[in-house]
Write a structure and sequence with these properties.
By secondary structure, this protein is mainly α. It has five helices and no strands. Helix 1 runs antiparallel to helix 2, helix 2 packs across helix 3 and helix 3 runs parallel beside helix 5.
Length: 144
């Protein structure tokens, strides 16, 4: 696997993030253009409105499919990091941590996690700041 660090940890799936979204956007734009082109035609409801509605449904499906998957991954990360923190410290993960902070902390190795967690709470670090503070990056190749 490719070495991960702050600069290279983001993952884009070309087929999903680029191709699928570009095609859905093209379908939406072309269906709206078609709608204005066929208005006034005897069957404009079928040849104009239905393609627009279908393209809007495609946009919503793509959005919700992505957001539901990310929410499930976030819950798994919270559980994994809570368990890891408990193993390392014998204490529960502080409730004051935000989800974005917990997600950022998953890249910290075991020896950096407790002090970085304390620092994140005390200094209200953003996820970007937490990631930049990690000295020995722990890769996560499973998140999409």
């Amino acid at each position: 696997m490719k070495q991960q660090n702050y600069a290279s940890h983001a993952r884009l799936v070309t087929g999903f993030h680029m191709v699928t979204f570009a095609l859905i956007l093209a379908i939406l734009i072309l269906s709206v253009i078609n709608f204005f082109y066929v208005v006034g035609d005897p069957l404009w409801v079928f040849t104009g409105i239905i393609p627009v509605l279908i393209s809007i449904v495609l946009v919503l499906i793509a959005f919700y499919a992505r957001s539901f998957a990310l929410k499930a991954q976030d819950r798994a990360i919270r559980a994994e990091e809570s368990f890891r923190y408990y193993i390392l410290t014998g204490k529960s993960l502080p409730a004051s941590l935000t989800m974005s902070q917990i997600i950022a902390l998953r890249f910290a190795p075991d020896e950096e996690l407790p002090p970085l967690t304390d620092r994140a709470i005390k200094e209200s670090l953003a996820s970007k700041e937490i990631k930049m503070a990690i000295l020995n990056w722990k890769a996560d190749h499973n998140r999409v």
